[in-house]
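Sample 1 of the test manifest.
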Amino acid sequence: MIEGITIYEILTVTTILFFIGVYGFLTRKNLISMLISVELILNASVVNFVVINKYLYPDMLQGVFFSIFIIAVAAAETALAVSIIINLYRQISSVEVKDTEVMKH
Amino acid sequence: MNITYIILIPIIPFIVFLLLGIFNQKIKPAVSGYVGVFGLLASAMLSFYAAYQYFFVNGKVDGVYQTFTEKTVWMHFTDTLHIDMGILVDPISVMMLVVVSVVSLMVHIYSRGYMKGDEGYTKFFAFLGLFTFSMYGLVLATNLFQIYIFWELVGVSSYLLIGYYYTKTSAIAAAKKAFIVTRFADFGFLIGIMIIGFYTGTFDFETLNNPEGSAILNWAATSFMGLSVITWALLFIFIGGAGKSAMFPLHIWLPDAMEGPTPVSALIHAATMVVAGVFLVARLFPMFYFVEDGFALNIVAYVGAFSALFAAVIAITQTDIKRVLAFSTMSQLGYMMLGLGVSGYEGHEGVGYMASMFHLFTHAMFKALLFLGAGSVIHAVHSNYLKDMGSLRKYMPITNITFLIAALAIAGVPPLAGFWSKDEILVAAFEHNKLIYYVGVFVAGLTAFYMFRLYFGIFWGKDRTYDHKPKESPLSMTFPLLVLAVLSVVGGLIPFSEFVTADKVGFEAHLNYPLAAIATTVGIIGIGLAWIFYKKENNLSDRYAKAFGPLYKWASDKFYFDEIYMFITKKILFKRVSAPIAKFDRKVVDGTMNGIGNKTVLISQKIKGVQSGKVQDYAFVFVAGVVVIALVFIYLWSN
Amino acid sequence: MDFSSFLLMRHEIILLAVILLLVVAEVSISSNKKSSVVHLAIFLFGIHTIAGFFKPDYGSLFGGMFHTNALIHFFKNVLNIGVLILLLQSADWIEEKIIQQQRGTEFFMLLFSSLLGMYFMISAGDFLMFYLGLELSMLPVAALAAYETTKRISSESGIKLILSAALASGVTLFGVSMLYATSGSIYFADIVEAISSDNLTILGFVLFFAGLGFKISLVPFHLWTADVYEGAPISIASYLSVISKGAAVFILMILLFTVLKPLMFIWENMVYILAVITMFIGNLFALRQQNMKRFLAFSSIAQAGFILLGLIPGNALGTATVVYFVLIYVFSNLAAFGVVQAISLHTGKEQMKDYEGLYRTNPNLSLVMMLALFSLAGIPPVAGFFGKFFLFTAAASKGYYLLVFLAVVNVTISLYYYLLVVRAMFLRQSETAIPYFKSKIYMKLGLLITALGILVLGLYSPLYDFIHELSNSIF
Amino acid sequence: MDILSLFIIVPVVTILFLVFAKSLKQARMVAMVGSLVQLGMAINLVFAYLKERTVNDSIMVFTKDVVWFEPFNIHYNIGVDGISVALLLLTAIVVLAGVFISWKMYDLPKEFFISLIVLSIGVYGFFISIDLFTMFVFFEIAVIPMYLLIGIWGSGPREYSAMKLTLMLMGASAILLVGILGIYFNSDVDGGALTFNILEIAQVNIPVEVQKLFFPLTFIGFAVIGALFPFHTWSPDGHASAPTAVSMLHAGVLMKLGGYGVFRVAMYLLPEGAVDWSWIFIILSVVGVIYGAFSAIKQTDLKYINAYSSVSHLGLVLFALLMLNKTAWNGAILQSLSHGFMTALFFALIGMIYERTHTRDITRLGGLLKVIPFISVIYVIAGLASLGLPGFSGFVAEMNIFVGAFQQEDMFMRVATVLSISVIVITAVYILRVVGIMLMGPVKNESYLKLEKVTWYEKFGILLLLIPIVGIGVAPLWLSDMILESLDPFIKGLL
């Protein structure tokens, strides 16, 4: 609970965060920065869980736990993604999105 | 009276047909000829016996000729309607049996000579057998459907025989024409049968023809467009008859049918099959007479009269002797129809009916004789055309004599057969309908004229020499000529009115001298004119032909009826209907089906851009999809 | 809680054991006979599969995070069978391509852990377990998709998968958080009680649905499918199209029918619309595919559309038909992919026109392929027909005749492109036809099993009756 | 093993044997023996049926009912009445004839005969099923082998034709599926259980609006394979590209599934729907009758001529079925049979002519009567039979149809009837046209002068088909009565 800040404001923030993430994911030219945008999206939901837990259902900690797991998984995800990107970089020495358009139609 | 053995009469020729048909290749021509002849001889004997039995022994019960039937169900339609197969014996069927037997037997004998050395010899006799079988079946039929069945069968055997020389294009065309035209008529016939079946609930002649029967009494029950449905039915049926009997305007197949071998023309297209139409009307005569006061019967009369005149006019101008005979046949058939048309029912009233049957009988004899004679001529000079003939009397006496007899007979010169029957018809016409009577008399004159034009043209006329000398035909051909000649002479003396009458009660027919005199004189005049024109070689005829100019031209072109039909079939049906339909099917109907398929593939081509390969586009679609769905279900679908 | 109750997780435990054993094997087996790893893995997994058939006991663990019942158990067996067949079919490929690179064991470990993830996903009792299962099942596959490190398209497909998956799971989580917000719990059991149809819930639900729709590759969440299938190793493509799709369908169905039942009036229409779109898009794209893997990818999208028909009624009938169809679909699709696998392994050819005249050179392969395609198209007497027919029945039982009609229209379209392959194999003749080759025993076995399955599963009705029993038991 | 299931089992066994056939010789031997056995069974079935009928007056006899998919109440439920018996006999004969005609199938013989027999399984199964589901299954089993048969062994644009045929028929069966499901889910309106069993559903009185909804689906679904205008276009192409035996089976047997299905399912289960919709379908079928005949006139490819004449003849079948009375229905069944034999015979002959002259274009043929008399004569006979000459089966069938149709009082029906009767003329035109051009006339091509005479197996195949045509034509009584009595329950269901 933070004094003077209602849940709505925080949720608004997280929502904005989410959409910034989405926007970034859609517009970044670089695979790495796309990954970063994904992190934003995930973090938005992380914050959501925590906040909802704290403001609405403070008697149990489901949200909090959930958020911890999300963070962990997000880390794993990123690691894997990066490793794949590196592998791609080995072959085409580029991490541009536009170089990953060989397969289409 | 026991009539079971009569079943054998049709069966025997059928067996002959099967034998000759199946073992076509195996059998030697000589043998097959004999098989055919003796098979028919047996049938003929049976027919004569049957006729004797019926007419003189036990056909008559207290003054009325009885109708004997034997039949078995062949197929069920509904609870009431069914097709029977069986035989019906009454005066006209027996009479027809005799006619068919005599002519067919003669033709069989004749053909052994005429067709000698032809490769299809066996096939020919097989077909003759098939035809004779069908014809017997037709005349013995007990109900409308049976008669229709054999009607079709004679039609097809005529098709086969006309197309006998199947390598000749003209023959093929003629055969096709004959079949399709008659088929078209049968279409009418069939509808007629349907109507009768539906409204009277039976196809059976006995039930239908019974003057006290419901079929006739309740004719007024249902009517359509102001006429009783039964009348309609009879008219439709008459269409069928008109088709077979080459009544105007369905006559066009008959002249072409002469493409067939001459014996065939004699048997089918002169003596027997073509009279089937007349026979059909006679068979249903009570209905024709009683229903709606003989409305249909009048139609028959007028159609007959017109056809008689029409054909006679054309006959004058033809140069192919078989075609002349063909048109003469048509004209004589018109006579018979006319006779039926003007007939009454009771006693002497029914003279027209009697006369028409009588004429059918005599005509069969002398017309067959004429054709066989013509055949023997053609056999000798290898041509159908008058221009290649002349003064043949020197070379072929028998043919000459017999042909002369036949000509006199058909011209109605007493005391030959034609005179009696034709006279009776004119009497009937005179009593009922003057107009028709005058037509009849006029036609009689024309008949005499063109017949003797033909006779003189062949046997007298220009005195020409032949590169190879024509000689008299062999006995196998002349014998039938002689037999038929005799019949043509004596045939008229049969007291027909004793035997064959509408009400089956014989009456005393006596000559009406004034009318007979008129008819005879008209005939003589016709012959006389022919004598003047054609006896000696001269250019009179041509001059007159010129004088008549266009009229002559029309007549010799048969008033362009073939052309009209050709136009309707080829131009209208084939070009304007059939071809467009065929195109429509490929282009439009099929096109649509293919179009659906092609469109689908096309769409899938169009939309392939969506799969752009850019992971961010995918993401965009993903998010957009989510948003859209969310919006839809939050704002539209949620209650 | 006593120890024995952990046996509820029998599948998971054994599989975990298998994975650990493989780790041991990896370190203990000397590098020159690594190929024995393949046999070991298949052997172990075979045991695991068989073990699955012993009568289990049902219940829930961890305060309801994990629960299992007859149907779930059965479905895990289905997945096992699928994976086993998959292993048999890809054994040769692993031996020839992967082992040299000393990366054979990892392959199995990743594959199995993904499977483990699915186990957890479908036995999830709350969103946390579900989420973990989801990720655990997805991430290793991404790694496997990029497994052919020498191939560019392999890495590309890996990236496309991982990024899309990440986005999808992000969206899902966001949705889940909303559901959590409205219902106050992440336990399915509690949510059923608390759920109400306010806008936030619907929004959350839609976001969540999108996540699963991504795994099932429903339109419009399907775009990754074709590219990933094409780039990934065939085994992985077929794994994605069969196993992971099957699992996702199953859990989606369970959630819709139980947890989200109160929202039925929403998801009924949603499923209806998505089903139609998915069928049409999938088929239309499949029409002109030349690469067999892409072709099968789109066909599998269309199939997903058909499966949705079974979700419509939202009752035991639907469940039974869906599970039955998935089971059949596993066999049919694996058969198809197996043939593609075999051919590409021996000749490296994956284009449709390479298949021309195949029947005259390799009749048996062609026959298996034809069976598979007919089964996918739904032509009797092979199994696919029965699967589809029952799905349609399920949809029709709620009176959605129009939907059924659209579906059968799509059946006809799909028949067209399936027949294109048959045409290539049977009707065409070509000089450059793939020459005759003999597959190894594993591959033969794999194809044989699938072929038999396709032939028998449909006609053998007790199977369906059994599934029907199970579905009734859980409702 | 019951007498009917044998019709499924024997072919299956035949196939199993065929799988191990090494050469053309073995393959055709096995196939011939197999289909001979089937023919034997079919003939035996006829007598068994006639015997059974005397003691057993239930709608279907020799019934056998095994639960298949219990949850859906799907049964493997078979039985026959006079109609199915007749059609089974037709099938057996045509299949055997087909085997004889494809005696020299050098390319992939084994596969050819297997597909052929799979097809026959479908047909047999369809005719003996009482259960809608089973029926549908067999229906599709019968259709799908056509793709391979035409595609692999066909000629001309075989791939296109095969694809088109398969898609159109499968599309139709897809529509049919909707109809069947509709019927199924309304089979419990009287409180009974949902069922696929035709006989049980017939007892249920399905609501009229439901019938109106599903009748067209069911009707079209079946009628497409019965070449209903305008969905007939698969048949000309299909026939033209198909190998001889396949054309025979397809036109001779497969297309009969349409009429039979319409009769057994659409008409019997949805009578009110039938009455309500009949007018539109009557129009379509009459159009088909006339239209088919007219387009046949203009064709020059023998197979196209025959295909269109099939459209016309089968149009008559549908027309008769829509006339909704016993006589017409009897005619429809008889027409199915006679058309089956005739058209199979036609295709057989066409195949032989093509084999010898390597063309099916009548304008390039001529005077065949001289060079191959046997085949030509039979062709003439077949032609006469198909233009409805008395003494052949066609006449019997058509007369039943016409008389039956004529029992309908109202003007619309009358007009339709007269129009459809008029086809006897048009048929004569195109038949005689072919006979005139192709068989008669001078021999067009010198090389035809020494064509191979007819071989024993060809003769056998021909006679096999010719005998029933003549048999039915000469003595229709027993057959038509057998069918008539089987029609009674259906009529009752209708009234």
